[in-house]
Amino acid sequence: MNIEFNKNEDVNKQSVYDLKTRLKKIYKGGGDKNAAKQKDKGKLLARERISYLIDKESQLLEIGAFAADEMYTEHGGCPSAGVICGIGYVSGRQCMIVANDATVKAGAWFPMTAKKNLRAQEIAMENRLPVIYLVDSAGVYLPMQDEIFPDKEHFGRIFRNNAMMSAEGIVQIAAIMGSCVAGGAYLPIMSDEAMIVDGTGSVFLAGSYLVKSAIGEDVNNETLGGATTHCEISGVTDYKHPNDQACLDSIRNIMSMLGAPQVAGFDRVKPALPKLNAEEIYGILPENREKPYDMLEIIHRLVDNSEFEEYKQLYGQSVICGLGRIDGWAVGIVANQRKVVKSKKGEMQFGGVIYSDSADKATRFIMNCNQKKIPLVFLQDVTGFMVGSRSEQGGIIKDGAKMVNAVANSVVPKFTIVVGNSYGAGNYAMCGKAYDPRLIYAWPSAKIAVMGGAQAAKVLLQIQEASLKAKGETITEENEGELLKEITDRYDSQTTPYYAAARLWVDGVIDPADTRKVISMGIEAANQSPVKKQFNVGVIQT
């Protein structure tokens, strides 16, 4: 091991420590004071409910833990967007769990809450996963209702998805474990089955205050929509339970009786750990995002037995393609090579850049994986497509379009890990969020932006200087330096993986050591949804 390796290791391990510290803070939700209020009502906290519900030997693969991170500060913040979502195992069955966190603004829905719920439903629909909703919410956060209520991807889309999932035969079980108000009342009742906790659960279209102001009737919330009302009088709910634990036990019992899912038939053998030490990834990955490294060294520490069947090894070397296994599952890997390579034509190719030959190779490989029914894993560390007259005359746009086409039309499940840079059209070609990866996670080393910070800041500075000159103002060298630093700092703050995760451009930020688990759980979920669509790229550039 050398000094460079040790330095990288220190920086990357510190980044993972920072990640875990951030998560610990987020896991506290609305804080100890609000948690105590829930406990006083005899309720479990949202994370306690999930922990009680899932199989003891399993872990939740959380979706959107960082959603809304450092957003809505003027409203007091909204950790995890006030809802916890993730893939977990209940009675041995993989399912999507969605639990409102009543310690965060009484579980009220912010714009990011809706976006996160829709992402959870999207994952459930793509993979035909049963959904368990643990409902405890005061409904829409009224001060922001215009950003959450009326549009296509807003609150109402969730109930539309409830209906469509039911029609598709995707099981949905809802537990009303606290408030369930107004439009939000439709979520549990549009599920296949709804249960309610006596004394703490309530569901109604309008609470007592609104009923009083609307029709003048004096009535309490328990009479309006408590467990007795809905289990014994209205018939709105199906099961009544004395406490959270009994309610969750009932869900586990129901889940144990579900019929087996159809399978897609993705190949899996007995899992094996990589022969090369996965911990060494911390030392291989440079602390500086501009520095070169060999992506093959990362791949060999992610795949079973460190075995990787490389496709067109000596051609289009700036993108690595090949077959391997992750936790026993067969996968096709498309990864950006970050070291400088030399083509047989004598062209020096920069690491992280997609050239015409590498785009051609990746396109063909993606098509091959669709032909063979092998899930795709994209490892992103891409600065974009090659620019300049030589590349333009060589048809880089045409070749890039081919790769984007193949990624967009791919019918096998796709999984994306943002290892490092994810810039510009490179993000698209390497299956960024817009290209429907089943799951997309980032390492703490990720940078997601339209272009690198240094280049973007210089462009923005030129625009600002031109604007000032048009007003007759001059800018000194000292002012220029200050302005450049201010622009660079602002731009860099918007390219962190946490900024992306807060807005759900990625499903989360993970320790590189968890990458195999994330991909394996993702393929296991995808294997419950047979591929029915025929692979077809339509008109492809030649």
TrEMBL record:
A Gene Ontology term for the protein's cellular component: methylcrotonoyl-CoA carboxylase complex
Gene Ontology MF term list: methylcrotonoyl-CoA carboxylase activity
BP-aspect Gene Ontology terms: L-leucine catabolic process
Residues of the CoA carboxyltransferase C-terminal domain: 270-533
A Pfam family that the UniProt record links to this protein: Carboxyl_trans
InterPro entries: AcCoA_carboxyl_beta, ClpP/crotonase-like_dom_sf, COA_CT_C, COA_CT_N, MCCB/AccD1-like
Domain of life: Bacteria
Domain CoA carboxyltransferase N-terminal: 12-270
UniProt-listed PANTHER family: ACETYL, PROPIONYL, PYRUVATE, AND GLUTACONYL CARBOXYLASE-RELATED, METHYLCROTONOYL-COA CARBOXYLASE BETA CHAIN, MITOCHONDRIAL
Protein name, UniProt field: Methylcrotonoyl-CoA carboxylase
Organism, as annotated: Pedobacter ginsengisoli
